[in-house]
């Protein structure tokens, strides 16, 4: 993971990465959210969509309402339902009258290795978008691209007019996405990366961190990185049977202790994928090659 840029960060300010897109940073920085969640407003001054409204923080909601101004909000669109992405949808819908549209609801009794990874249990969409379904407004079309893996309900949204893809937590420039079983699925995550690699999007706008100007190059590197991790796990288990905790100690030397839980979950996701493919097996928490 890359460290965040020096402060000050543009928290609460409106940035304009391209003509149809505005961006507002939420005040929720952490080791897992970088400088915070980035909410995107897509459209013109008359009718817009809000992507990943973020946490239910009064200052953030006030900043969003100020950025929206007199525009009609056609939809509040969520890529997935982790608590740093969707909770502001409810108060924003109450204030604007807009429908909540996008990913399906998903609630598991799973807090993950970090607070931000827990699910938004109150998320209730008015409309769930399937893969390739779209929301439209004057001069803009946002098409859903199903990308399960980080969560089973994860969607990206493609802005057809400019070639931009809003990638949520699926692809980010500053860090690889955390894949936390049981809902997070490494085989699905890898298939979703391959799906994006086959596309020709011009730029990615993730929910955390900077825009990705060379998206296919980054995705190719992420696929390679995950395959290297997989090969490393198989090699280490071929030497002796080990637990995920023992694997992390070798694979992630010098890791910040705050991130050890996430690394262990990522290794476990790889192990489950390898187990499905018949390459490894386990006895309780100890894994070995077949």
Distance between the termini: 32 Å
Mean pLDDT, rounded to whole units? 94
Beta-strand residue fraction: 15-25%
Can you write the helix and strand succession as a string? EEEEHEHEEEEEEHEHHHEE
Alpha carbon gyration radius: 19 Å
> Strands of the largest sheet, in order across it?
1-2-3-4-5-6-7
| Oligomerization | single chain
The SS-based structural class is alpha/beta
Low-confidence stretches: 111-116
Question: How many β strands by DSSP?
Answer: 14
How would you sum up the global shape? elongated
Main pleated sheet: 7 strands, mixed
Helix content: 25-40%
Enumerate how many helices there are, as a single number: 6
Structure commentary:
With 290 residues, this protein is of the alpha/beta class. It is built from six helices and 14 strands. The chain has helices spanning 58-68, 89-96, 186-197, 215-239, 244-251, 260-276, and strands at 14-18, 21-25, 38-43, 47-51, 72-78, 100-102, 127-128, 134-137, 140-146, 155-159, 164-168, 203-206, 280-283, 286-289. Strands 1-2-3-4-5-6-7 form a seven-stranded mixed β-sheet, covered by helices on one side. A five-stranded mixed β-sheet has the order 8-9-10-11-12, with no helix packed on it. Helix 3 (186-197) runs antiparallel to helix 4 and helix 5 (244-251) packs across helix 6 (260-276). Residues 111-116 have low confidence and may be disordered.
């Amino acid at each position: 993971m890359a460290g965040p840029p020096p402060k000050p960060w543009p928290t609460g300010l409106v940035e304009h990465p391209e003509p149809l897109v505005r961006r507002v940073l939420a005040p929720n920085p952490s080791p897992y959210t970088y400088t915070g969640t980035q909410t995107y407003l897509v459209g013109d001054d008359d009718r817009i969509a809000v992507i990943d409204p973020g946490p239910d923080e009064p200052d953030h909601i006030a900043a969003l309402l100020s950025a929206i101004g007199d525009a009609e909000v056609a939809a509040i669109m969520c890529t997935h339902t982790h608590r740093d992405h969707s909770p502001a949808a409810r108060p924003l819908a109450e204030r604007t009258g807009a429908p909540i549209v996008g990913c399906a609801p998903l609630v598991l009794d799973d807090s993950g290795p970090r607070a931000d990874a827990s699910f938004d249990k109150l998320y209730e969409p008015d409309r769930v978008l399937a893969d390739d379904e779209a929301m439209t407004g004057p001069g803009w079309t946002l098409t859903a691209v199903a990308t399960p893996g980080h969560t089973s309900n994860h969607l990206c949204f493609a802005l057809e007019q400019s070639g931009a893809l809003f990638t949520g937590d699926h692809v980010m420039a500053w860090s690889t996405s955390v894949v936390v079983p049981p809902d997070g699925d490494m085989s699905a995550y890898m298939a979703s990366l391959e799906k994006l690699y086959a596309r020709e999007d011009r730029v990615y706008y993730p929910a955390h961190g900077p825009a990705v100007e060379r998206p296919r190059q980054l995705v190719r590197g992420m696929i390679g990185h995950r395959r290297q991790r997989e090969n490393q796990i198989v090699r280490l288990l071929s030497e002796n049977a080990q637990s995920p905790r023992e694997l992390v100690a070798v694979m992630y030397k010098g890791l910040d202790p705050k991130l050890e839980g996430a690394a262990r979950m990522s290794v476990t996701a790889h192990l489950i994928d390898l187990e499905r493919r018949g390459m490894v097996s386990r006895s309780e928490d100890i894994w070995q090659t077949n």
